[in-house]
Design goal:
The structure is a single chain. The protein has 104 residues and is mainly alpha-helical. Helix content is 68%, strand content 6%. The two termini are 14 Å apart. The relative contact order is 0.26. About 7% of the residues have low confidence.
Length: 104
């Protein structure tokens, strides 16, 4: 007959890691939401009908690309952390069998 043994510390740490990953995902989505709510004129520092400074606008555009890539990496890492928390929690629910009831 199999008994369930729960490792309470492992379950607690697994839940903490999972919730930490979810918090990091929420932070990533908040940063992305804030970044994509900026109007393009403000993001590229283009002011009205003035002549566009390509060096400054190009630098701002590269900055936007870099921030977007960093947001993708942050999303990937935070989802991996949340997944690791789920795995830690599930491994804390291991099953063992009694020695007397095992069949050869």
């Amino acid at each position: 007959m199999a008994r369930n043994h729960r490792d309470w510390l492992g379950s607690f740490i697994g839940l903490l890691v999972f919730l930490g990953g979810i918090a990091l995902l929420a932070l990533t989505f908040k940063l992305a939401f804030d970044m994509f709510n900026v109007p393009p004129e403000d993001a590229l520092k283009i002011k009205g009908t003035k002549t566009v400074d390509l060096a400054q606008s190009g630098g701002q555009f590269v900055g936007i690309i870099v921030r977007t890539l960093l947001l993708l990496v942050m999303g990937l890492v935070s989802s991996l952390i949340a997944n690791r928390g789920i795995l830690l929690y599930m491994h804390s629910l291991h099953r063992t069998a009694d020695k007397e009831t095992q069949t050869p």
